[in-house]
């Protein structure tokens, strides 16, 4: 194939456009090098070559001739109770204000199959587009397959494919052909570039689940000094009540009653504006309000009557945190004392810590973090905490006061290692009674 040297020079020059006084390209690519190509540079003395960045014959990324496995960021849809799963489940809206996110993997697992023919897939909705938008997958998940069996989607296209690239304000939805008896659903979408150590999100599809929301805490922070940098909200049906109908997000310090803390927004957001169009509420102008310490929580605070509002999605993005770590938030909003899957790994990871908080105590309920491998049911695997003689975190302690875990001792720490398809679950034991408002976070790192 003949190569036009003018095009080569134009591509090379495009990398330095702003230095030459030109406009900055929105998204730039010189095109791909051949597979199994490794760039090299001379050492300072000019006597030897040093390996830079490239790929190997198995499509692995190499840096300095060493294998690199970049950490992606998980976006989760986790719904335990069958009655809370809808056929249309919007669960994420992009607030990454500077760089588009790109989907690199989608996985699905459930603890109870649909019981009859049922399929599901993740779609992307652009600004102003009703659900469903364009599928992010080639094919669908079989929701009547064997329970507790990890499924990985074939993505809709290669890197850069339109439905895999998420611009600010664009949404992800999990669409189901028939819910039937489906329960314990856990869908994870992995995105790059990394958006920080976590994304804090709340999603409720049905109006009844929004109306019955009290003041839900949806994130418990495990990273000291983590700072809020962007918020996005979107809904599929706008509120219609004649009065004020708003949602706010508060930062609650330990011991705060949910919603009693300080708003991270400059003003509460109306949820009566145009449906299927993301909004980006302005943040508080006070830096200390946006900075979160370990144990601080995020809570949605409602005002007004939420007539008609449906498909509510709220996502909070943070600054970059510790390198190669992620935080996985989880809650018990749909069935607080039911064993559940709280995380599904897509690459080797190590469990570092787990914290929980609750707003109403139980009499004797304990929640144990487990590693569930293969087709093991949620919470039926090996316990990872030594709290309360390996029974987990006892939820009869002080309300609204986050409690950390004591992880396994050195002799059994190999259980803290996760491989692709391994899951973290919550095992419940004891009497649930009136326990409510459970929220937790798990800290993981790359090996």
What does this protein look like?
Helices cover 5% and strands 37% of the residues. It has 447 residues and is mainly beta. Among the domains are: 5-68, no CATH class; 331-445, Jelly Rolls, CATH 2.60.120. The strands form 7 sheets. Strands 5, 7, 11, 12 and 14 form a 5-stranded antiparallel beta sheet that branches. Strands 6, 8, 9, 10 and 13 form a 5-stranded antiparallel beta sheet that branches. Strands 16, 18, 19, 20 and 22 form a 5-stranded antiparallel beta sheet that branches. A hairpin with a 6-residue loop joins strand 1 (38-42) and strand 2 (49-55). It is globular. It starts with a helix and ends with a strand. 42% of the residues are buried.
List keywords for this structure.
5-stranded antiparallel sheet; mainly beta; 447 residues; Jelly Rolls; 5% helix; globular
Number of strands: 33
Task: Please report the first level of CATH classification, the CATH class of the domain at 331-445.
Answer: Mainly Beta
Give the proportion of residues in helices: under 10%
CATH architectural type of the domain at 331-445: Sandwich
Q: Over the alpha carbons, how many angstroms does the gyration radius reach?
A: 23 Å
Distance between the termini: 44 Å
- Helix/strand structural class: mainly beta
Q: Return the CATH topology of the domain at 331-445.
A: Jelly Rolls
Strand content: 35-45%
Mean pLDDT: 88
Which descriptor suits the 3D outline?
globular
* Largest sheet features: 5 strands, antiparallel
Supply the number of helical segments. 4
Report low-confidence residues grouped into runs of 5 or more. Answer: none
